[in-house]
TrEMBL record:
Residues passing through the membrane, by range: none
Keywords: ATP-binding, Nucleotide-binding
Stretches of the chain forming a coiled coil according to its record: none
Location, primary (coarse class): membrane
Organism: Ottowia flava
SUPFAM superfamilies listed in its UniProt record: P-loop containing nucleoside triphosphate hydrolases
Stated name of the protein: AAA family ATPase
Amino acid sequence: MEAPTSLFSQPALQAALLAAAGALAYWLKDVPGLLIGWGKRFFISTLTVDSRDEFLFPALIEYMDRHPGLRGVNQFTARSVRRGSEYQSLQDDLRNGQPPRAFLSPGEGVHILRVDGRWLWLKRELQVGQTVFEKVSLSTFGRAPDFLERFLQAAIAARAARETDSLSVYIPNPFHGGDWMRARLGSRRPLASVVLKAGQGEALLGDLERFFASRERYAQLGIPWRRGYLLYGPPGTGKTSLVTALASELHLNVCTLSLASPIVTDEKIHTLLAAVPQRSLLLIEDVDAFFRERDAAHAQVKLSFSGFLNALDGVATQEGTVLFMTTNHAERLDPALIRAGRIDEQVELGFADADQLRRLYLKFDPNPAAADAFVRANAGQARSPAAVQGELMARFGAASTSAPTAAR
């Protein structure tokens, strides 16, 4: 008598079991990835920044170069960063002995680091699609993103501090003619470094602060929110230096415009004034040198006098623009150029008075008796602060005390 056939020996059932096992295995193959993804979502915080962000990404890279905790890696990506700030191009930097420096940051791949008491793993990768860009992801344990937010804010603060501690000077872009380019990044200077007559600098600073705080009032009155100043006086009395110091105190940019530039024409000047960067002082120096009785003073000036006036009044001019014009010869200026509405304040910067002479001397030699003698010796002489400073520097040297900068 034959043994009964086992249930599991039936071919049809075996096939069904194999199919079910295959389906189960196919489904279970995704489980590890799902568990890992679920774990990342609930137990790990991640922050991602990519190079399409023109501020955050460079700020993060620069911060990683400086952060000692991120120097624990042994694979770096190096980028050259211009060391100089006063020249317009890398070629100018090299010619003037300021080669770029290398910024090092963790290279492509995954890096596990101990940063500020927390384990941090950093992933850097190159993304290739319609565009090519870099992506940096920072991850740490915990659902709260506080640590990563603080890390990123520290990078932002470091970059912002570097920018705000410097004075950006812009000139018209010679390649486009309708926008501005940063010509240099210089050190900010305190208003006290410009030795003016008592109260002059402080009065202008207060006036500017009131102007920037009065936008709503201008709107209520229906008046364009713009302000113009004329600084006049002999050479060396501090006109340009005062503008630089005011911009430094208020954390503004300076845009310098030469009316003799070949790209400054009746057509382009409207575009330039409309494109002045926000929070900027617009500086036009020696404005008397460009026109003689409303005609161009020389062949280099491509701008007409009427075109200049129209641009100053133009509706396209940026709201909040502050214009400073300087001149050594106020008597040569056409009254239409400095009428109310175009120029709101005229400030004369003259030769050094007794108080200026005393303060200039004390910058170099903190000796009150010697300062009084210096004032008596120079009383009544028509001397600019710049000339006085030059004499004192020759006498005492630039490094004798805190270095002053009187005027330009």
